[in-house]
Amino acid sequence: MATFILLANWTKEGFRDIKDSPIRLDAFKAACKEHGGEIKAYYMTMGPYDMVIIVEAPDDETVARLALQGGAQGHTRTLTLKAFSEDQYRAIVDSLE
């Protein structure tokens, strides 16, 4: 499984419907599970992003699909980062010539 960090902001519509955001989060969790992934952590944050979501998924395409489906609803905008664990990082550095 690959790990991804989604940095998300609520849109104007997202703020308008903020009381429904827990329902949308539950729907996103279910969609992740349907596609073989899992939300490992969710944080509401202060600063330039409203939310940080840690997702494990089988591949890049799965997370791209989930982010696009979520964004198409109009309540959030996301920035997706692929994350490498410490073990993966060490293996990448060890493989350098």
Largest beta sheet: what is the strand line-up? 2-3-1-4
- How many helices? The count is 4
Query: Which stretches are low in confidence, meaning pLDDT under 50 for 5 or more residues running?
Result: none
Number of strands: 4
- The topology string of helices and strands comes to EHHEEHEH
Radius of gyration from the CA trace?
15 Å
Describe the main β-sheet briefly.
Answer: 4 strands, antiparallel
Q: Indicate the mean pLDDT.
A: 96
Tell me what portion of residues adopts beta-strand conformation: 25-35%
Class inferred from helices and paired strands: alpha+beta
Distance, first to last CA: 27 Å
Shape, per Cα inertia axes: elongated
The level of helicity is 40-55%
Protein described:
With 97 residues, this protein is α+β, with helices and mostly antiparallel strands. Helix content is 42%, strand content 32%. The chain contains 4 helices and 4 strands, in the order βααββαβα. The protein has a 4-stranded antiparallel β-sheet with strand order 2-3-1-4. It starts with a strand and ends with a helix.
Could you name the key traits of this structure?
alpha+beta, 4 helices, about 100 residues
What can be said about this structure in brief?
Helix content is 42%, strand content 32%. With 97 residues, the chain is α+β, with helices and mostly antiparallel strands.
Topology record:
Elements: E1 2-10, H1 12-16, H2 21-34, E2 38-44, E3 51-57, H3 60-72, E4 76-83, H4 86-94
Antiparallel strand pairs: 1-3, 1-4, 2-3
